[in-house]
Structure formats: structure tokens, C-alpha cells
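Exam revision sheet. Question 4 asks you to relate a sequence to its structure. Input first:
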Amino acid sequence: MSCYQQQDPIFDPSMSSTYSNITCASAECSHNRNGSYTGLLRLHVHPRDTVRRVDSKGALVLLRRILRPRDPNNNIHGLFPSFLFRCGQNNQGSFGRINRLLGLGPDQLSFVSQTAQKYGQYFS
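Answer key, C-alpha cells:
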């Protein structure tokens, strides 16, 4: 695994009490167009989970309770209970040493596609 230098620690699935593996025969994995995922992960993140480092290669990560849409009064309106994230295995660039990047690709696992039913494929 190759990562660019980051300021914050990288997620360590062993630090989550709700982490479990996803098999390649899973429905989540079937969304992959090029068949390149390895070491798939399912993760239900609790706000108190500790984030440390990741050692999974080419992982697909399912996070729950992460995206919390809010109105102008800061009220939570809903969650995306089964949001899928992919973890890169050969990341290059500086990105200001930020360790959280959001990909906006066109496939079924993109942020825009997964939130389309709620937001109509709008993103800003």
C-alpha cells in the first residue's frame, strides 16, 4: 500500500468494535466494475470509534451514521445507513496532507450516485 504523507492518523479497523469483513461474493462487491477490490471491509462507525491507521489493501468500506444531512438550523434530517466507501491502495499527490478525499466518479459507488435518490444527483 502506498499513501501520500498525511497529517491525521489513518483508520485502523481493529480499533472499531463494529468492523467485519465483506466477502467478494457480497452484493456490495458486485457493484465493482473492474473486479479489483481486495480485502473488503464492512464498517459501522460509531462516533466514539478511534481512528488510527489502515492496513487493508484496495478495501471497500461501508460506513454507517457518517453522512448527516442538516437543515439551516443545524437539525439532522436523515442518514445514509449503508454508504459505501472505497479505500485507495496506491495514492499519490500532496492534497495538503489531508487524509479524507471524496471521489465523484460516475459508477454506482460514487458519492453522487449513492445519494441520487435523496438529492437528485446534485452536489456542491
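Marking note for examiners. The chain has one domain: 1-124.
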